[in-house]
Amino acid sequence: MYERVAVAGKPDAAARRLLEARSPSAVADRIKVPTLILQGQADSLFPLGHADAMAKAIRANGAPVAVDWTAGGHDGGDRETSRVAARTEAWFDRYLKGDKGTDTGPAFRISRTGGIDTTNGAVQLRGATGERYPGLGDGGRTVALRGREQSFANPPGAGPPSISAVPGIAGLSQASSLGVGLSLDVPGQFARFDSAPLDRPLRITGSPEVKVRVKADTDDAVLFAKVYDVGPDGQQVLPEQLVAPVRVDGAKQGRTVTVRLPAVDHELIAGHRLRLVLASTDLGYASPVEPATYTVGLADGGLKVPTAPGVHTQPAPLPAWVWGLPLGAAVVALALLLTGRRRTATPPPDPELADVPLQITGLSKRYAKSADRYAVRDLSFRVEKGQVLGLLGPNGAGKTTTLRMLMGLIAPDDGEIRVFGQAIRPGAPVLSRVGAFVEGAGFLPHLTGSANLELYWRATGRPAADAHIEEALEIAGLGSALERAVRTYSQGMRQRLAIAQAMLGLPDLLILDEPTNGLDPPQIREMREVMIRYAAAGRTVIVSSHLLAEVEQSCTHLVVMDRGRLIQAGPVGEITGNGGSVLVGHDGELSEALVGKVDALPGVGSARRTADGLLVQLDGTTPARLLAELVRLEIPVTSFGPNRRLEDAFLTLIGGGSA
Amino acid sequence: MSSLSQATEVAPGYRAGHTLPLRVEAVRQLRRRRTLVMGLVLALLPFVLVVAFAIGGTPEGRENRVTLMTTATASGANLAATALFVSAAFLLVVPVALFCGDTVASEASWSSLRYLLAAPVPRARLLVSKLAVALVFSAAAMVLLPLVALAVGTVAYGWGPLRMPTGGELPVGDALVRLALVVLYIFLSQLVTAALAFWLSTVTDAPLGAVGGAVGLTIVGNVLDAVTALGSWRDFLPAHWQFAWADALQPHMEWGGMVKGVSVSVAYALVLFALAFRGFGRKDVVS
């Protein structure tokens, strides 16, 4: 039968009878069961009109009907296999199994093409649903078409044909909804009528209709009607590549017919135009091979476009993790922050210490990743108001570690630091009364010296008037260099600027770590005077240094540290001892026995060799008596004097501490 | 704490909440050379594009793929979209990593961090100020590029609708809203880079380490995303969604990709920011 019809190009009566008997339309009036009709949109073989006919017929029998326009079809595209299977199963569950709780989905659903998934280039689908199936002609909007009556030819042999749907080329029809697609009309073989650019978007959902007058020089006219979406740049897109074949009988006298265009779901953007094309040929169809001339004009000038206003696009479903992931992360973040807080509460301030600039009790800090090596161990001392305290110790004694703990930069493992009675914690507010210069300058190299100081003060958030910036700058003594970027500064200039920064706001407790490093002798002397003046005004200064000689000249009190431990603390005079020490220069080497003899002299605390000579600690005797004794012992004395007292005391102390 | 003891507790006028104000931090960062260079690079890129199109002629898509490149010369809005297209994957990652990764680590390397902390600026306060300024700078970089491109493109190609590569046009008003949305999405999707860089910044004292680490991990993310064998696990890679903003330039706005991208980015960012605050709050500052 197929071969017969295919060769003849027209079905004969027997073929017609057979097809009609096999068509669902033959049994439609007897289908009384709930029916789910799934029809592909990209399908030139079984177009949406078939689904429409079934839905109408079965609904007339009173059975529930749901219509689902899937995305793909026989022309290709996404068949939505899994969704279709799921919906079919739900339908069977509801009506065959009788599971009343099963949701069978909306009465009408369209799979609409959204954009492209930017992560993989796939087309995104969204469902549009309606509470009832609207048919193919719901909610008309009439779009005016323009165009004169046009004549065109049906070429002999019906070739070359226009191209619309090309069966087998999958994906082309999908592409049409994105604005690209292959379609071709052969010049001289079609009539076309355009609308004005649309002032608002238009979504076609169903079969547009148009009334045309058709006249032909043959008995029948065979036309292929299609509606294009034409962009502003003239690019035309044929929705789903679908075309409606029309046979107009008795066209010789001219007839006015209503042409139903293919049912599609397609959105036109505002600014695009609709274009009606009636062509004499199409690649997908057999058409008359006899040459003919057709004349087509618009009968009433309007294309009736169904818009199905009851159908609404649903937002694309989002997986649950879209909300769950950030919420979970927020919980994790909160947990991290809450468990990360220091467990020990800040101890209450001690009012008895409110006037004590610094009290350190039992302070210990281990080296990182070490259980028993201490940078500072069981350190305790106290600083009173008005003191200039020298923190003395060789490199690695733990001075800087102590100062860092004092500034709240590192947390002690044990012990407590109180400044004016307040326990020190990272960022403790009482630190606003402390000015510090520890381990070198820290400036923004791209800013000038004055900008650095100004921004630093503004960062403390305190009133500009409290900064006393002029006094600080006087101490820095940088002059015009203040207006240069800090990166151009020498080491000494940075040092002075940093000390000036520490003095901003005239803090009650000023901490200077190795302040004279990189300064020249006049500046060192000046710095000394600055410190003494500063403390004289009732404030307190802590100076750390390993340059002992100069600390001795500016400090009132000393704290001597070595290897993390406190060696001695007290007024300078107390530490250096009342009698002081004497350095004896001599010729040649002194034997161990000779040193032992000096050590054993009455009134001598200790005697030991140093690089500069014999260091003798006096304990009762006088220098004159000592000299006499030394001469008696036949020591070749070349020089004799109370030289560099503090350094010697310091070395003596350290020697004792490490023994 | 009674008001009587308040006098000795802090220096007059000191309030923890007023330390390191955003304006001060902004000024401190703004005058840095890297900030200026970054701004200059981003401001010059549109000019470079225009010159390139002038020399090379009308741009063509590679292998018939439709990209924003093909419509770059259609209008100012198109050039702005194209500038975002060419720079979103890498060029815009750099300022985010730079501003957020360098901010704490550079203070540590200059030793100025300890003076700020001893001022004292409370540690959380310091991080909040620094993070806010770094994010504002990052956002400014992202706004600067399309803005300059829009201006340059308008002079070069005229003020017109945004022509989309897939066909169709957006009127100028809509196009500007969509471009703003694109910039907002890029900013939100870069939060993960920002958080990673910021966290690294609090961990290391080497600014380059923090910036490079963040950029490097972003590249690793891109590489992982290219491994299709990972399947849907890639949904949880921030790099997977880096071009989701293109959804805003399609005829049909698609929100799905952008919502997922923001979700992934924000989730990672929250945890990384929390790690930064937690780690820095208890850290021994030895720089």
UniProtKB/TrEMBL annotation, chain A:
Q: Which UniProt keywords apply?
A: ATP-binding, Nucleotide-binding, Transport
Q: Where do the ABC transporter domain residues begin and end?
A: 358-588
Q: What is this protein called?
A: ABC transporter ATP-binding protein
Q: Which GO terms describe its molecular function?
A: ATP binding; ATP hydrolysis activity; dipeptidyl-peptidase activity
Species of the source:
Streptomyces violaceusniger
- Give the similarity note: Belongs to the ABC transporter superfamily.
- What Pfam families does the database record attribute to this sequence? ABC_tran, PepX_C
Q: Which InterPro entries does the protein's record reference?
A: AAA+_ATPase, AB_hydrolase_fold, ABC_transporter-like_ATP-bd, ABC_transporter-like_CS, Galactose-bd-like_sf, P-loop_NTPase, Xaa-Pro_dipept_C
UniProtKB/TrEMBL annotation, chain B:
Q: Which UniProt keywords apply?
A: Membrane, Transmembrane, Transmembrane helix
Q: Which Pfam families match?
A: ABC2_membrane_4 (PF12730)
Q: Does the keyword Acetylation apply?
A: no
Gene Ontology, cellular component aspect: plasma membrane
- Transmembrane regions listed in the UniProt entry: 36-57, 77-100, 131-159, 179-201, 208-233, 253-277
- What GO molecular function terms would the record report? ABC-type transporter activity
Protein name, entry field = ABC transporter permease
Q: State the organism named in the record.
A: Streptomyces violaceusniger
